[in-house]
Amino acid sequence: MKIRKLEPHLINQIAAGEVIERPASAVKELVENALDAKATTITVQLRDGGRSLIAVTDNGFGMTRDDLELAVERHATSKLPSSDLFNIQTLGFRGEALPSIGSVSRLQLTSRAQGAEEGWTLKLEGGEKNAPIPSSHPQGTHIEVRDLFYATPARLKFLKAPQTELSHAVDLINRLAMSHPSVGFKLLSDGRVVFDYKSCDSLQERLSHVMGADFSQNALPLEISRDQIDLRGFISLPTLNRATASHQYLFVNGRPVKDKLLQGAVRTAYQDFLASNRYPLLALFLDVPREDLDVNVHPAKTEVRFRDSGLIRGTIVSALKQTLARASQKTSTTISQQAFQSFRPEPLRQPSLTGYLRNPGLARPQRDLAMANENFTRSAEAEAQPMPKQERAPLNYLQESSTPLSPEAPLDIPPLGLAKTQVHETYIVAQTDEGLVIVDQHAAHERLVYERLKAEMGHVKRQPLLIPEIVELDEESLHLLKEVRQDLQNLGLVIEPFGEKAYLVRELPALLGEVNIQGLLQDLADEVKDLGSPISLKERLAEILATCACHNSVRAGRKLSLEEMNALLRQMEQTPHSGQCNHGRPTYVELKLTDMEKLFGRR
Q1: Does residue 419 form part of some domain?
Q2: Beta bridge partners of 282
Q3: Which of the listed residues 144, 168, 197 is the one where a domain comes to its end?
């Protein structure tokens, strides 16, 4: 076939395939345009998940007639004041969104510029543009996208159910709402209000609206500045986690992104506290100099590239670890709330008198009730008498503190309280100033042992290979591993170049035992390429230490003395991250005295 120039409508449809993947993609472009126009309120309306209708209304600067006509032309934008693609200060900059959407839908734009006496309306249908006509409209812009992909029906087959498409749009608008708390966002679906976020004065307030009360109650504030890099946001305690990473919101210079480097940094920071299939909740906002960031690497602008990825990753990991260390003994309030709910008593079944009434042969209920009252009175009087010493409950069922609490000699009760008993030889019950604490003795001791093993692993023991192994790798992998040779050596893996296409492996971390060395080095090279650091080796060593900690911990079912229980509590108070075990499970649950009073109707 001869080379030919594509028709304009086909060019736009190809661009639409890159930029507009689904209704949520169109919503993203239109809402970003509204934010770039300095709108303070944005309303989004969807029908059939966005397939039939997407309408976005804002009170931004608006557009004149000439602006409307240019806005639907390819590569026309108001968002690049110069030709410097590394000085982008807006969310949009490509100038492809509106013409791409208009080429595959029925698009109508109505806008009135700030200070203008009248507004204008322009329509596109399958890429065909009509002349603008005058329209009555307040300052701002209203855009309607009807019958998305009607001009490219093959793409309709790839859309999911309306509820699925709606969920993608909700997630997208939520991300933009987090990065712009001063802007009000309202979303309607088929006439129903999905959410209505009012303008907020603080980021924490907006996050509580989007991510829920559980997150706001268990979120740790984070703020750090280093080498012109600013990082702020909120991260959850490890005990508040989810089965997917869908509640991890990452932003770079105000732009929502899904970046492997940032996700890998989060995973590394939490690797000591969560199982590999659990994910923390967080919202992180990273600001870097614009010249050190390339946002022009993906058509949908969801990925970015950093000039110094190692610095970015190191900053995030250290900031998260420092924040988690400051709350090392805390556990999430959701654990206590779940425990409180589980203690709620079920309604007692009241005795029925209908049996007496149906069977005249039975004794009269009045007489039986009188006998029951007499028996109850006798029992109460008997319980008021001192119990003989030999009738007390045996110590293997109930252990009392050898140090009684008395008003004459008040004790300085530590944060996790004083041990009072051991239940089912698994759980320690301690009394605190404000209530009681229930400790899982195995989970708690597992964390203590793990932290001790980590401290002892300051210098990893190495196992020299009797016969060094030669591992051949491609040129890119060789170069990547060369950059992290010192990091690998600190972890116990000693390698050195061998010829032009191989590494000679001389020593391995002793903890690894038998391992596929070829596969290990290739995995490390792949991770350095994607994440900037050899995470898998650190994780393997951490997993081995966690296994050692688990097998060397106090097991459930072991009877402990009061001295042992209190010793465990005191060690927990002095050990970092003792609020959760190595797998993210809580090590203790706290019940406040006020909660217990509610259970018994005292409040």
Answers
A1: yes
A2: 235, 248
A3: 197
